[in-house]
Design goal:
This is Protein gp37. InterPro entries: DUF5131. The protein has 5 helices and 12 strands. By secondary structure, it is an alpha/beta fold. The longest helix has 14 residues, at 190-203.
Length: 253
């Protein structure tokens, strides 16, 4: 368990670590870079670098939290990676099922396996299931998410590296949008963000604009959230047309 700087969560919990790249959004994977650093630091959990590893000793951690938390599950991996055994996925779900005081945010790019296993999993209301969508080519993940039994469904349209022109938000509760950050980050464009925002408004879906990624991507160089001392600072700033959008699903209440 670790406190998180990710704007839409509080903690990260990693009963699985490691992954591999499957689509363009993975190109500059922060988790891969972080795994190398942690391995170099001698952290036992990351001795195998970015290879897929399950950590049974991490399963009981949520039972130790005294207060309700919002938890990003496997920020350093993908729970639905094909190398993660089904029994271990079910064990993670069992922990989430038995700690209903916490909200768990699970995010995957493996929407095919998510849908395949959906009927075998216990989708209690505290489990929010999301898929990553980085461009129009990967909007099929939304359709596969929509067919699952998850009570709350969300999209992480981050990094948004190309426009999306079709968004089926009929069964979606929350959409996060963000630009890529880092030395070689690919730019995000304002019109891409606004398309998503408008689609959310039409469906009454909560819209969360996380960041521009780099200040040079931000169309407003005077955006105060670019400054690190701003209480809602994000990489590259996070204002869109002079406003901050950090909506959460109604089910968060």
């Amino acid at each position: 368990m670790a406190q998180s700087n990710i704007e839409w969560t509080e903690l990260t919990w990693n009963p699985v670590t490691g992954c591999n790249k499957i689509s363009p959004g993975c190109k500059f994977c922060y988790a891969e870079v972080m795994s190398r650093r942690l391995k170099a630091m001698g952290i036992e959990k990351y001795k195998d670098g970015f290879n897929i590893r399950t950590h049974a000793d991490a399963l009981n951690i949520p039972f130790t939290w005294k207060k309700s938390k919002i938890v990003f599950v496997n920020s350093m991996s993908d729970l639905f990676h094909p190398e993660v055994p089904v029994d271990f996925i079910k064990a993670v779900f069992s922990v989430m099922n038995n700690t209903p005081q916490h909200i768990y945010q699970v995010l995957t790019k493996r929407s095919e396996r998510l849908l395949e296993l959906s009927g075998e999993l216990n989708w209690t209301a505290n489990i929010w299931m999301g898929v990553s969508v980085e461009s129009e080519d990967y909007t099929y993940r939304i359709d596969e998410l929509s067919k699952t039994k998850a009570v709350t469904k969300f999209l992480s349209i981050e990094p948004l590296i190309a426009p999306v022109s079709t968004l089926n938000l009929k069964k979606i509760d929350w959409v996060i949008v963000g630009g890529e950050s880092g030395h070689k980050a690919r730019p995000i464009k304002k019109e891409w963000i606004e398309f998503v925002k408008t689609a959310c408004e039409k469906r009454g879906v909560a819209f969360f604009f996380k960041q521009w990624g780099k200040p040079q991507f931000n169309n407003n160089p005077d955006d105060p959230t670019i400054l690190t001392e701003h209480p809602q600072h994000a990489k590259g700033g996070c204002e869109l047309n002079g406003k901050i959008y950090r909506e959460m699903p109604n089910k968060a209440a």
